[in-house]
């Protein structure tokens, strides 16, 4: 089996495990699968859950695509080759409960040839309300997953996440960050290709225990209509980031990706109230104060 085929097969297994685990955690919803083929080469498995007990809309997508790189992407990647292969798992979960956070994960592998290839990915959390104990739990779990492969990984990738998941036109982070990494290869990690794949899989396997714990901590809490409206307001920030800044969205659109799979990251409903300003010292206000780069959650 070629290395890229091994990567794709292990990513498919991650997709299967996470879908099974999320169905158990939700208790009601089931994923519907749509198999698709990409014009130009490859395809994927889109799995969507809607209107579950806690998951209002969630996507756990796998893709393995190949073909010719568009000129715009070649320039962005600073490469001259045309033929590419890319595979990955992409997850976005939007809960119906305002005290349960949005979560996103992506693990991916990109290859042009033996010399030009790399891994990327990460996990980040977007709470509608920031609970500091939950934030510390989330970051501790990510640090543990990183430390298994390099103690320098977590601080480096945490900083990358703070910088990447930043809504410049709002001057706030999308949520409480997490880890984000790109272009990992032996030269910049001191790991072999197989070890970097193991790291990628380890990140994927960290997703389920983290998110099921956060669901269980918060799903039975009562909430008000005002908190629900705040959830819709925070979702709008998520939409703004994904449509304006997200590199995965841009790559998918520029490589003729499947539009329904690309935009599955968007919530079923979001509100754009005009100049919404939470009351000082309210829970909403305190959440806004924590949407900043550089917070040490460890």
Automatic annotation (TrEMBL):
One of its GO terms (biological process) is protoporphyrinogen IX biosynthetic process. It is an enzyme of class 1 (oxidoreductase). Its EC number is 1.3.3.3. Pfam families: Coprogen_oxidas (PF01218). Pathway: Porphyrin-containing compound metabolism; protoporphyrin-IX biosynthesis; protoporphyrinogen-IX from coproporphyrinogen-III (O2 route): step 1/1. GO terms for molecular function: coproporphyrinogen oxidase activity. One of its GO terms (cellular component) is cytoplasm. Keywords: Heme biosynthesis, Oxidoreductase, Porphyrin biosynthesis. The keyword DNA damage does not apply. The keyword Transmembrane helix does not apply. Belongs to the aerobic coproporphyrinogen-III oxidase family. Homodimer. This is coproporphyrinogen oxidase. The lineage of its organism: Bacteria, Pseudomonadati, Bacteroidota, Sphingobacteriia, Sphingobacteriales.
């Amino acid at each position: 089996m070629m290395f890229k085929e091994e990567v794709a097969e292990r990513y498919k297994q991650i997709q299967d495990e996470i879908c099974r685990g999320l169905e158990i955690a939700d208790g009601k919803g089931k994923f519907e699968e749509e198999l698709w083929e990409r014009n130009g080469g490859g395809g994927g498995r889109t799995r969507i859950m809607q209107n579950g007990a806690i998951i209002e809309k969630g996507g756990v997508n796998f893709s393995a695509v190949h073909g010719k790189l568009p000129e715009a992407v070649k320039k962005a990647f600073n490469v001259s080759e045309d033929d590419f292969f890319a595979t990955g798992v992409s997850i976005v979960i939007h809960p119906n409960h305002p005290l349960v956070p949005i979560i996103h994960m992506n693990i991916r592998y990109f290859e042009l040839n033996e010399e030009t290839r790399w891994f990327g990915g990460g996990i980040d959390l977007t709470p509608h309300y920031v609970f500091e104990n939950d934030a510390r739990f989330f970051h501790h779990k990510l640090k543990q997953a990183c430390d298994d492969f390099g103690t320098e990984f977590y601080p480096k990738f945490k900083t990358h996440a703070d910088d990447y998941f930043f809504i410049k036109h709002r001057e706030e982070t999308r949520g409480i960050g997490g880890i984000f990494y790109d272009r990992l290869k032996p030269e910049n990690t001191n790991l072999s290709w197989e070890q970097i794949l193991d790291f990628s899989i380890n990140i994927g396997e960290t997703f389920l225990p983290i998110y099921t714990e956060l669901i269980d901590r918060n799903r039975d809490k009562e909430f008000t209509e005002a908190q629900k409206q705040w959830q819709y307001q925070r979702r709008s920030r998520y939409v703004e980031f994904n449509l304006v800044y997200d590199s995965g969205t841009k790559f998918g659109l520029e490589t003729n990706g499947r539009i329904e799979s690309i935009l599955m990251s968007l919530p079923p409903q979001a509100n754009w109230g005009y100049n919404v300003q939470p009351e000082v010292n309210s829970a909403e206000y305190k959440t806004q104060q924590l949407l900043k780069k550089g917070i040490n959650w460890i």
